[in-house]
What does this fold into?
Amino acid sequence: MRFIPLILVILFAVAAGVFLATTKDKSDASPFSGERAYAHVASLVGLGPRYPGSKAIVDAREYMIGQLHQAGWRTSLQAFEDDTPRGRTEFVNIRARFPAADKDEIDWRLGGGMLLLCSHYDTKLIDGIRFDGANDGGSSSGVLLELASVLRNTPDLARQVELVFFDGEEAFVDFTEVDGLYGSRHYAKFWRPAPASEKPAAAYVLDLVGDARLRIDPPSDSPRDLLGELYSAAEAAGERRIFGLHPTPITDDHVPLNAAGIPALDVIDADYISRGRWHTAADNLGSVKPESLEKIGRVVLELLTRRFGA
Ligand SMILES: [Zn+2]
It folds into this structure.
């Protein structure tokens, strides 16, 4: 009588082992690591609030550029000044591209056929609180840094992509024509006069991609072909259920890109904005989950592979 439960225990243990091994193989199948993306978010948050013109945003830039160079990418900085409700302020966008094998030089004026993957890395300046922007500004930047490192192993794919880290996405007061989206408005101005054949083909802007209850609802006026591409990639990555559509347009860095003739889609957890942590001290490291970052990273990798082949 005592053998039966023992045998059952053994059988159960074997079955559980097989199950765990299978599940593990599945998650190991993607080279994108949510833990490594999270470590980047932690590094950025550790520097302090990264509002435009702060010491912390200078340090954040140095960190990100260092990580990008380490992963074999080249960077180009777009520094500019703009008037804000808090006075004249300096902003710096970071562009990153993967060099060709035979030459180091990159012509940053040419973007024909390329895909832009964008994030903002500044945090909103909020008086009276320490605003970490772990999810808002941190999460998407961590995902792009991990993508840079993963794409190094598929250089042909990496060369089709420009990573863009915008400064000054946040408004100093409220979003208006002249407050907020400083970096993306400046970046879009750079591309606006370019002939269509030399403009990047499309852009995906990641924003708020780290919350535990991650949902991605792009704005209602998103370019339909990009929405379809995103949903197909999500389906293939097994994450379709967290993707939907927001009922209204959204003000974010995709807007100036669209206006400059680069079809752009905002990959955003729009629901996060009404869940209580947005633009509060509770948007801290504890609210960002490696699992959520990994979901987005895997979907973006899937999308790149489908668009460019690999
Ligand atoms: Zn924000």
